[in-house]
Design goal:
- The protein is of the alpha/beta class and about 180 residues long.
- It is about 30% helix and about 15% strand.
- It contains six helices and eight strands; from the N terminus they run ββαββααββαβαβα.
- The chain has helices at about 30-40, 65-70, 70-75, 105-115, 145-160, 170-175; strands spanning about 5-10, 20, 45, 60, 85, 95-100, 120-125, 165-170.
- The chain has an eight-stranded mixed beta sheet.
- α5 (about 145-160) links the parallel β7 and β8 (about 165-170).
Length: about 180
């Protein structure tokens, strides 16, 4: 059963329509270009290291310490716009801490937060759940380890309650979720 998450403090906005959840895989820019042709006005949620490369209205990660340690907030500030910071763990830069369990990685967390705040279509970009490097040829770290990628993918695959309304632009997530039309 799909249950909306709740944040502390309570997230004060309600959204609707589509949102692009952008992970930091090597295919991010290609996926984003294709998704923007379908949803040119969609909001963007940047996940983990994607915060370095694309302007977003929200930053999401299960790794709260990296908003500061990996300088994700610093990089996002270069776009000179307003954004909010979300995680499942408290940290000095996190504005909204969500009561959602870890499963499927940070992009899947962003998908569940997106639903919780009202977005009705979620499109994963740069989230293929295949082994490889990050965007801009940065070494894949965890995502270069096949066992890690397979475990996260299996969690998404088994989390069928959250599949409806979610699509993906590439990889194994596209195989199970389908591509938006």
């Amino acid at each position: 059963m799909r249950t909306r998450g709740v944040s502390a403090p309570l997230y004060p906005f309600s959204h609707s329509g589509p949102v692009l959840v952008c992970g930091s895989a090597w295919c991010l820019f290609e996926d984003l270009e294709k998704a923007r042709k379908i949803f040119p006005e969609a909001n963007i949620i940047a996940v983990n290291g994607a915060s370095r490369d694309i302007q977003a209205s929200m930053l999401v990660s299960q790794h709260a310490v990296n908003f500061k340690n990996a300088r994700w907030v610093h990089f996002q500030q270069k776009f000179k716009h307003t954004f909010s910071i979300h995680s499942t763990a408290p940290d000095s830069l996190v504005q909204y801490v969500w009561n959602l369990k870890h499963r499927g990685g940070s992009a899947w967390l962003a998908r569940r937060i997106a639903y919780s705040i009202g977005f009705d279509q979620v499109v994963l970009c740069g989230c293929p759940m295949v082994q490889g490097n990050y965007v801009n040829h940065r070494p894949g770290m965890l995502m270069s380890k096949l066992q890690v990628v397979d475990d996260l993918f299996l969690q998404i695959e088994q989390d069928k309650d959250w599949h409806e309304g979610c699509y993906s632009m590439s990889g194994r997530t596209r195989e199970i979720l389908g591509e938006p039309r």
